[in-house]
Write a structure and sequence with these properties.
By secondary structure, chain A is mainly β. Chain A has no helices and eleven strands. Classes of the chains: A mainly beta, B mainly beta. Chains A and B meet through strand 5, strand 9 and strand 10 of A and strand 4, strand 5, strand 9 and strand 10 of B.
Chain lengths: 115, 113
């Protein structure tokens, strides 16, 4: 089966600019996650979708970050305006559903550098 | 709430030696526990997971982990290290019924020839 697709792989922007990341989960996976991984740290959940509804966005900086999952399939994560501390790898993951300890499948990530 | 502590941000072993990566967790509910591996410029790959069945869990690439409730630990081991095992390893926890994964800080494993 095809994996989780993310694009772009790399992005360099100046602070205060905007940027968007795209994720296409595994077909049939109802749950989609966006994680932020700052260099030297473990991934931190930004937002979790179940189909096209938000389950958890408690750690999403809503003043600058937004995410949507149209039609319960693809998802887009946007940052506007970007800050230097947003430099990180943004990982998308998907799983079959909630509960029962399903493992995630992660994409390769988008490495964002804000200068 | 769940949390994970990985003891040692960097572990170095010789090729052929035992690999031991330590993970302790905190969870207010029965946990699910995971180990992921991350190679440079790649996403995370699931090594193994504990979901309240057998306490000794076998994963891919010869790795295994043992769930010890009394010690709140889920250490990752491999009897004989291979050069290809060099990577970053992450322990993660989630509560049953909720799939939000909480990750540890990671342990970078280096293999010396």
């Amino acid at each position: 089966e095809a994996g989780v697709a993310q694009s772009p792989r790399y992005k360099i922007i100046e602070k205060r600019q905007s940027v968007a990341f795209w994720c296409n989960p595994i077909s049939g996976h109802a749950t989609l996650y966006w994680y932020q991984q700052i260099l030297g740290q473990g991934p931190k959940l930004l937002i979790q979708f179940q189909n096209n509804g938000v389950v958890d966005d408690s750690q999403l900086p809503k003043d600058r970050f937004s995410a949507e999952r149209l039609k319960g399939v693809d998802s887009t994560l946007k940052i506007q305006p970007a800050k230097l501390e947003d430099s990180a790898v943004y990982l998308c993951a998907s799983s079959l559903g909630l509960g029962e300890g399903y493992g995630y499948t992660f994409g390769s990530g988008t490495r964002l550098t804000v200068v | 709430a769940q949390s994970v502590t990985q003891l040692g941000s960097h572990v170095s072993v010789s090729e052929g030696a035992l690999v031991l990566l330590r993970c302790n967790y905190s969870s207010s509910v029965p946990p699910y526990l995971f180990w992921y591996v991350q190679y440079p410029n790649q996403g995370l790959q699931l090594l193994l997971k504990y979901t309240s069945a057998a306490t000794l869990v076998k994963g891919i690439n010869g790795f295994e982990a043992e769930f010890k409730k009394s010690e709140t630990s889920f250490h990752l081991t491999k009897p004989s290290a291979h050069m290809s095992d060099a990577a970053e390893y992450f322990c993660a926890v989630s509560g049953q019924g909720a799939q939000k994964l909480v990750f540890g800080q990671g342990t970078r494993l280096t293999i010396n020839p």
